[in-house]
Every structure is written in C-alpha cells, then in structure tokens.
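Hi R.,

Here's the chain you asked about this morning:
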Amino acid sequence: MDLTAAYGYRLDWIVSFVAVARHGGFSAAAKATFRSQSRISEHVAELEKALGVQLFDRTAHPAALTPEVRALLPHAEEILNRLGEYIPAIYSVKPVPVSGRGGSGDGGPQRMNWST
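And here is the predicted structure, written out as tokens:
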C-alpha cells in the first residue's frame, strides 16, 4: 500500500463531496455540515482538481451526479464510516504514559492542581 497517495487529499473534501451527493446539492450540503456553500463548493472543486475529473454537473439544478460520483461515492462513504468506528475505539483504550514529557519523574503526564 502506498501511503503517500493519500497526501494529495483532505478529509474535509471527502466530507463535502459525500454531503453534496447525499443531500442533493451544494446548499443542502452546506446546511447539513454547518459550512458555507462557498466552502463546500471549494472543497468539491479541490477534490475534482486532485482527481482530474468532474464530479457534479453544475449546469443542472440541483447539481447532477456524474458517473464518477457513482463510482467514488461508496468508497468515500466507507472512509467516513471507518473513521466513525475508529475514533470511539481509540478513546476506549486505556492511555499509556508517555515518557520524557513530564517533570514528575515517573515519565507520565504531569497533573495540574488548579485548586487554591
């Protein structure tokens, strides 16, 4: 697996792309993701540029899905679904102390006493 292939893409582009495809347009996607319509459009345009394909036919109202969207959408949704599964799993793991970061002598994080 070539991990460097992912460097050219941003997660927020994928979120915006999926939102436009699922909510039927840029305005609805903006509302659903609490972003501006211009930000959603910018994200989709950057993803299109990175992929070298047009994902939505913007001459139609609402924006029409291209064949490329139908091919990419299940994969993009899978990325987001997997992240949704992984993040709770990360927080369910007991934290391991990181050595060399604190001054407490035990290698663990320092505890701050905020009471006076």
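One quick note: The helical segments are 11-23, 26-33, 37-51, 67-92.

Cheers,
M.
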